[in-house]
TrEMBL record:
Family label: Belongs to the TPP enzyme family.
UniProt keyword terms in alphabetical order: Lyase, Magnesium, Membrane, Metal-binding, Thiamine pyrophosphate, Transmembrane, Transmembrane helix
A GO MF label: magnesium ion binding
Domain Thiamine pyrophosphate enzyme TPP-binding, chain residue ranges per copy: 381-527
Identification of the protein by name: 2-hydroxyacyl-CoA lyase
Catalysis performed (reactions): a 2-hydroxy-3-methyl fatty acyl-CoA = a 2-methyl-branched fatty aldehyde + formyl-CoA; an (R)-2-hydroxy-long-chain-fatty acyl-CoA = a long-chain fatty aldehyde + formyl-CoA
Amino acid sequence: MTSFPDYLSDALFSYGIDTVFGIVGIPIVELADTMILKGKIKFIGFRNEQAASYAASAYGYLTGKPGVLLVVGGPGVVHALAGIYNSISNKWPLLVIAGSSEDTNRGGFQELDQIALLSRYVKFSSRLNIHTVEEKLYNALRQAQLGTPGVSYLDVPGNLINQNMDMSSIKPPISLSAVKFQPTDFDLDRVARLILSHESKSILCVIGKGATSSTQEVRKFINKFQLPFLPTPMAKGVVPDSHSSNVSSARSLALRSADLVLVLGARLNWILHFGDSPKWKESAVFVQVDTTPEELGHNNASGTSYSLCGDIGQTLNKLTPLLRAFRYAGVSQELLKGIQTNEKRLRVKETKVGPLLNYNCVYAAVRRHIVDKETVIVSEGANTMDVARISFPTEYPKQRLDAGTNATMGVGIGYAIAAKLANPSKSVLCIQGDSAFGFSGMELETASRYRIGMVVLVMNNSGIYHGEEKDLKTLASTALTRECRYDLVAEGLGCCGFLARTIADVEHFFQKALKIAATGQPALLNVIIEPGPQGKLSFGWQNKSKL
Ligand SMILES: Cc1ncc(C[n+]2csc(CCOP(=O)(O)OP(=O)(O)O)c2C)c(N)n1
Ligand SMILES: *[C@@H]1O[C@H](CO)[C@@H](O)[C@H](O)[C@H]1NC(C)=O
Ligand SMILES: *[C@@H]1O[C@H](CO)[C@@H](O)[C@H](O)[C@H]1NC(C)=O
Ligand SMILES: *[C@@H]1O[C@H](CO)[C@@H](O)[C@H](O)[C@H]1NC(C)=O
Ligand SMILES: *[C@@H]1O[C@H](CO)[C@@H](O)[C@H](O)[C@H]1NC(C)=O
Ligand SMILES: CC(=O)N[C@H]1CO[C@H](CO)[C@@H](O)[C@@H]1O
Ligand SMILES: [Mg+2]
């Protein structure tokens, strides 16, 4: 006989789960304590379930196995909805385990019908009992990881914790390996003919984060046919940014001039302007390659005819021999000129330093001290993130995390903790706006407690989008406290804090911070930058560049 906590801990470990994120309470504290006692699974206890759920969500993406979140019922689950929603939106594997009250409908402690709350949204949800633990755990992990990755939920009633299981009938876990599938020869053939007929027209590959697991195949395909490409923000590095076919520096022009667009593992959502004019040509033809049939033809009711449903790597491998006769001219002169002009413009911005620093010059200074291969960058904020996205090219996949499709503020420190745990030998740099920092800044204490070394850069313009230049009679909705010393907050939470006002400060403290982080202590640089352009904020999804 073995106790339920013992069994769950061993079973999770045998499925390859090495880390569990969460916050304990009655009744699940015994589950976390058992994991810690057994010493195989790391338990990372956070300060708020929201940040813990974002960390578990990103850990699932980075490791390819379900991230696991352990929380109490009721309010614990409610706070964790953030990460649950995040994993659903991003198609990242996540298993949530929560305690639940046995006193259903009697006003029990933290009583909430979590299964009813979640079952509409998650792939699998079920309440455990002592006879079904084995089977339900298998199904929960299987559903989270296989097919379209997503969220599974397991409800642990308090009275289960003290029950014992008969181990003689327990079987070893079944390995979870995805079944890869390919489009039919018929579909592939039609797409191949379509591509061949565009030999002398303008072709563009858009690479999304859905392609990160097919990195080698995508690189081979782009290399072989010299197709111009641009990655979505989290797909950077699937093909190295230094590749001569990288046209992201002339993004608008590349979109506007494309006749045929191969969309590999990306969604035609607002980030890609819904595949619509005026950002794209009215006549542009899109070929989407995706494992999720529901994504195909999205925002293009009349045109699902060229979609390829299947594993991206296998699809490209099958498409390659069909394109034997294909000779593409490479990046056009017009695009090359656009790239040069924009790159030059960016470099000029980076050298312009006024009385107060700005995003571009700070990022250029930081970039000088970053070793790309060894650095994961998380960025979060509005301007802070938009400028960061174009300031740190990378050669490696899965090294960029940010607010993503849902433009979610609050993911930063949780993602950074997950990134460091998933890549212990790499440095993690978390670049946040002062507003973004506020959503989960307290988790610096979590990072410090577990000695998860990272460097946090807070870009302080004293506001959301921009700071106010002078004191107004009324407080703007975007305003944040001017003399807010995030560096002192960090010190109070067990990290090192620095205040930087000049480029020399940034370079000096950033190098210092890297050294401190390498010892396991998080370090934060509060970088004072200009408040930025004032005036009314405007939003134009169709015309604003978002990569
Ligand atoms: C969960 C959530 N709440 C609110 C917002 C609205 N929002 C968009 S960006 C942003 C913060 C931007 O300010 P900051 O992080 O300081 O970056 P800056 O643009 O000032 O560099 C906010 C609150 C959001 N995207 N997500
Ligand atoms: C390639 O793309 C990145 C953005 O992903 C950009 O910052 C970089 O400057 C580009 N490089 C070239 C040579 O175009
Ligand atoms: C959108 O519709 C057009 C016209 O039918 C078609 O040529 C194109 O392939 C469609 N795009 C997608 C992504 O389905
Ligand atoms: C979040 O992203 C998903 C996937 O693109 C989308 O379906 C959903 O509508 C988004 N929700 C919000 C609130 O942005
Ligand atoms: C984008 O379009 C909107 C409405 O069409 C407009 O008000 C706004 O000024 C435009 N923004 C930019 C950056 O062109
Ligand atoms: C702590 C600190 O110095 N905060 C600064 C943040 O940035 C604004 C300017 O954008 C300054 O006014 C604040 O003093
Ligand atoms: Mg700000």
